[in-house]
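Letters spell out the chain; the tokens describe the backbone. To illustrate:

===
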Amino acid sequence: MTTVVVVGSGIAGLTAALHADAGGSTVTIVTKSELAEANTRYAQGGIAGALSPDDRPIDHARDTLVAGAGLADPGAVDVLVTEGPDRIRDLIAAGVRFDRDADGTLRAGLEGAHSFPRILHAGGDATGAEIERALVEQIRRSGIRVLEHTYVTDLVRREGRVAGVETLGGGRLEADAVILATGGAGRLFAHSTNPAVATGDGIALAARAGAAVRDLEFVQFHPTVLATGDAFLVSEAVRGEGAVLRDESGRRFALDVHPDGELAPRDVVARAITAAMAHQGGRPVLLDATAVHSSDPDERSRFLAARFPTIDAAVRSRGLDWAREPIPVTPAAHYLMGGVVTDLDGRTDVPGLYAVGEVARTGVHGANRLASNSLLEGAVFGARAGDAAATDGAAWPVPAGTAAVVDAAPDGIPHPPFTRRALQELMWADAGVTRDGDGLRRAARTLAAWRTSATPPVSLAEHEDANLLLVAELMVAAALARTGSVGSHQRTDDPASADARVRTDLEGAA
């Protein structure tokens, strides 16, 4: 009987664990916080899938490829969109309560860069929380072993393969297969939508074990995060309902950069906001929902509270009445498209090691993620990895991909002392929404100096810091290596953006 350790407990990890368990494996889930504490829990947007008889997987695939700026893997995208509807039906069978119309029909919404309303939500803007709730309940019923508040510090390697994990405090779990499902690295940046657990642990674990990583330069910055109080994401679905972006003068500036305006791909909208903020001295732009649904502000207020209850509560807790006045927003780091290179079943190029969800680079997203494809990716590829881990023998297909190389060296110039906040501010300034060669080289030198002076980590926070520092070096090296602009990677020293040309070609072909 195969033993499988799953590290992480979002939609990808829980789905992988359930499939490995169904395949006859002995499964243990290890998570550094509570079982339900994962990026999935905070996903306000929905899950995309061509379930309507009027929609087609091929159309979903086209939208995904266009959003990916020509760098998405068509084979991975085909798996995502063709298997996605069945995985959504699995979630429904597991008890996920997606929003429905009065007649019981699943209610599907429209989000940026989708050509058809195919986005399912739950609780209006609490889709991730509802999916996490249902999957956690299923895990509890299954009897799968769960180790909460257990931090993995390293992978056990034996005879050229991964054979388990080391945990903080010295505990070791032996396993035939380890599935990394640790999420992304949003906590690399000063402004982030990610929860505190998103510290790049899985990417660092895999890189130290020799696994290939790729496309770390592609970070999606969500365009609309509340710019007052703690960072809080305002879902793209709000713009899907008709909210618009305005600068301080009241002008809808997003239409200047893309015909779809506020519903253009996220990288386009985030850059438009960044440019508008720079033009007005760094002050936030405004998200205007005052024309959504009704001309009557009281009716509009009731609609916003019912459609977006979580966002409505957050907005109002800050003393804002978004039914009557625009609210201030700013971009923030949201999703990492790159990660540990895998094949279509989650296998890395290190035998015994799998990666799923945001930690993985499946090729689905290319240079930019299509809205609401992340939960779908977790469900589809989590299932495939769980099935593969339960059945893989000695054969190990090796996916193509190379690891980023960190070649910077300390420059001898005094740098500020390392703190997590200093790292986050550095990455926001020099590897954020826009980058250039000078800033990236400056960041690389500072990161190298911090690495040289680092001491071996002891506490959980120190291990997280070490992982963040390693992933930051890999990300900056990747961003330096890609000198052209494409997708979410915008080099201001390459003003003729490659993704604009690619996207035009793709849209013309479609």
